[in-house]
Amino acid sequence: MSPGFIDALRSIAGNALITSREELRTYECDGLTNFRVVPLAVVLPSSAEQVQAIVRLCAQEHVAFVARGSGTGLSGGALPVEGGIVISLARMNHILELDIANARVVVEPGVINAVVTQRVAPYGYFYAPDPSSQSVCSIGGNVAENSGGAHCLKYGFTTTHVLGLEVVLPDGSLVQLGGQTLDTPGYDLPGIFVGSEGTLGVTTKVMLRIVKRPEVIQTLLAAFDSTNAAGAAVSDIISSGVLPAAIEMMDNLAIQAAEASVHAGYPNCGGLLLVELDGPAAEVAALMAQVEKRCLFHNASEIRVAQSEAERMVIWKGRKAAFAAMGRISPNYIVQDGVIPRTKLPEVMDEIERLSKAAGLRVANVFHAGDGNLHPLVLYDRRIEGQEHDAEQLSGEILKLCVRVGGSITGEHGVGEEKKMFMSEMFAEPDLQTMQLVRCAFDPDHLSNPGKIFPRTPLCAERQGPYVPHPLEISGEAQFF
Amino acid sequence: MPGFAKAKSEQALDALRAIVAEGELRKGVAEDAVCEVVPELFVTPANEVELAKVLECAGRMELQVAPRGGGTKLDWGTAPQSIDLMISTARLTRILEHAPGDMTVTLEAGATIAQLQSALAQHGQRLALDPLWPERATVGGVIATNDSGALRVRYGGVRDLIIGITVVLGDGTIAKSGGKVVKNVAGYDLPKLMTGALGTLGVISKTVFRLHPLPVESRTLSFPFHSREAANDFMLAITDSIVIATGLQMRTGADGRIAVDVRVDGIAAGVAAQTDTVCNLAGKVKPAENGNVWQAREELWNGSDGATICKLSMLPAQLSTTAEFVREGLSENASWNLVMNSTGLAWLRMDATDCGQIADVVSSIRNFLASTGGTAVLLRAPEAVRQKVDVWGEAANSLAVMKRIKEQFDPHANLNRGRFVGGI
Q1: Is A173 part of the contact surface with chain B (CB cutoff 8 Å)?
Q2: Assuming Cys at both sites, which of A30, A278, A345, B160 could form a disulfide with A214, CB separation 3.0 to 4.6 Å?
Q3: ipTM of the complex, rounded to two decimals
Q4: End of a domain among B183, B213, B243?
C-alpha cells in the first residue's frame, strides 16, 4: 500500500470515508462480538461506479477489503481484516425496480430485508427469506450469507430468491451474474456467489423474486413436556405430507427468556412448538386439524391457535426475540447454528443435555425444527474466569455432534471467522481444496474478505496438471494441506 | 482422430485395462457418437473409485473426455471436436440412502430418474422434478444439463432440489460438497455450480436431493383460448391468485391452437378450492380435463431428426409476445410448436426446410429477448443451423469469470472441451 492510499480513497468517496480511530470502532465487529479488528478505513460508496473504483484501487495497492451490510451477521463474516478497509453498502439502499407482473424486484445491496416486503405488500406479495434480524439486516448481507429464516422450510433460502446479481469482482470488473430470467446460459454464477460470504466480490445490485402472499396464514402453539415429545410431533407432522410454512421449537430455558423479554404469553412447558401453515383457506383448515391431531397424539398439554393477526405477531415476536432475550437470564451467550437430520433430534437433544451438564453450563435451545436447524445458546458469564473458554469448547462440541449425525456446522449464519476451523470436521482436504478453486477463479490475490470460511488460504498458482509443490510450501513458509 | 494418434490410443487402452475389468472397456462404436463424433474408447467404471482412477489416467494422458449418463441429451451443447474417451456412469446406479423421515435421498449419478422415483414412491415421496425421458435419463445427466419440466413452477429446478454432490475432477480428485441436510451454508455451493455445467468441470458420481411428498390428489384442467395474449393474461392471473399451481403452461403452434394447462396438487379440500378459483379466473372459457398435456414438452422431440429445438427463457409476462414474434418470423408453411411455462421457460420446435430461415429466426428471437434479459439456447438443430448460429448465443459479460472457473477445475480442458458457453 502506498502512502497516498487514503487520499486516493477520499478522491473516490469524498466525505463518505471514516478514518478516525474512534469512529472506526463502530465497525470493528459484526453481530459476533468476540472477534474484533479495527480496520484501516471505512468507505461508504453510493454507487456501483464508486464501489468499482474502490475495489480497483485496493487491487492496485494490494489492500484487502471487507464488504459490510448492516453488520448483523453472527459468524464474523464482516469482521475487518488487519490493515484492510471496510466497504459499507449502507448508503446504497434504493429499490430500483418493481415489476409486480413478473414478481421481480431489483434492489441495491443496502436495502433492508423487511423493506422489500413492505414495498411489495400493497400488491399482495412478500419477500420470503426472513432472518430474525430482518428489520435491520440488508439484502447484500443476506446474499453474502445465503440467509434463511423461519419460513425457508417451505419457501427456500436467499439463493432460491436471487435471480441475478451485479457484482464488482476483486479485480475491479463490474459483471452481471444470472439475470431477470431463469437459467442464464453458462455456469450458475448467482448460485455460487450467494452464500460466498463476501469472498468472491462485492454485490452492487440484486434481482429478487417475490412471492404471492397466501390466502390465509395460521399459527398454532403446542406445549409439550419435553423437546423430545415436541420433536416426535414434528417428524410425524412432516412425514404425514404436510409442509408447514414454519415449525419452530423452544425449550424451557428459551421460553423463560422470551417471556421475560416480550411477554408473548407462551405456556410454561418443556418443549414449545410453533407451527405455521399457509395457503388456500380450505387446505389450511384441513391441514391444521391434522396438525392438532398429531400434537395431541404426542401428548401436547395445551394447543392454541392464534385468533388474529395481532396474536400471531405476538407469538412470532417472542420467537424472533429469543436470542436477544438471553440477556435476561445470562450475562453472555454463544449462539450456534448447527443442522441435523430432523429424525436425529431426540438423540441430539439428549447428547446436548449431557454435554451441558458435563461442562456445568446451561444451554437454551431455540430452533427451526422443520429443517433441523438448531440454535443452541450456550449461556455463560465472562466475568468468571475460564467460563468463556468452556462455553466455546461446549459450543464446538455441539457442532461436532451435528456433523457426526450427518448434519452441518451452519444452516444460515455462515462459517465466517467463527467456524472456519470446523470446516475440516465436515469436509476432507480434497473437498476444501476443490471449493478453493472457485476462490482462486474469482479472487486469486485474496483481497476480498480474506481469511474467512476456510481454515487455510490456498495458493492460487495456475494449476498445471498434476500436483506440483509450491516453492513456498517446500521452504515451509506456507502449507497447501 | 485429430490429436489422438493410434499409438496413443493403444497406450490409453493399456493404461485403462490396468484399472477396469475386461468388458468395461471397449472401442467406441457408431451408437456412442455425439453429434456424429465417435469416441475412440468407451469405459464403464464399476464404482466411484474406478471412475476416479480412470479420470486420473485420462488426465495424465491428456485424453479428451466425454461423460455419459443415459445418453438422452448428448447432443445438447456445441458439437465436440473429438472424443478420446467416453466415460459412462451406467454402473453407478445404487440408491445409497433414502431417509424418508428426513425427506432426503443419496444416490449414485448413473441411476435413472424413473428408478429413483419408483423407489421413493414406495414411501409416498418423490423428487419434485419432471425432466425429459425419465426412463433413460440419469440423475447425473439431468443435473449436468439442468433439465426441468412443469413442476418447476412450484418446486424450483435442479438447483433448488440438489443439496449435496460428489464430483470427480479431471485429475481424479474426488470432491464432496453440500451435505445431507436441506439447510446448509457451509462452504461454497458447488452443487449449484455443477448444475447445468454440462460436465465441463468434473464427472458427477453421487448426489443428494431433498424430497417432497407425493400429492394425495392432483387435477389438471386445460383451457382453450382464441388469443395468445388472453392465454398469457390468464396465466398471470393464476400466478397472482391464491392458487399454487404445480404446473402452468401454454401450448401453441402453427396450427393456431392455444391451450393453457393448469395443475393443482394437494389434499382434496385444497384442490377443489383452487380449481374453483382457476375456473372463476377463466370466466367463460370452459376447461377440459386431460392429464396427458404434461407430456407436451417431451413430445416436441418426437420424430425431430431434422427439426430445431430451442430452450427459451423470458419474463413470465412475455410469453404471448414471444409466441407472436416466432409466428411472424417463420413463413406460413413452416411448422412450429411452443410449450411455455409460467416460469418464463419455454421450448420451441421449428420444422422448416430452410435452415437459413431457422437460423435467422433464432437470431432475431435472441435479439428480441435480450432487451429484457432473456435467452435462447439450441438444444437440437441440423448441422446447417448450427453452422450459422452459436448454440448458446452471445455470452454474458461474466464469461471471463466462467473461463477462469473452467481453468481452475480443468486446467487442460480435457472435459467436454469446447462444448459449453463461449467455447468453454
Answers
A1: yes
A2: A278
A3: 0.97
A4: B213
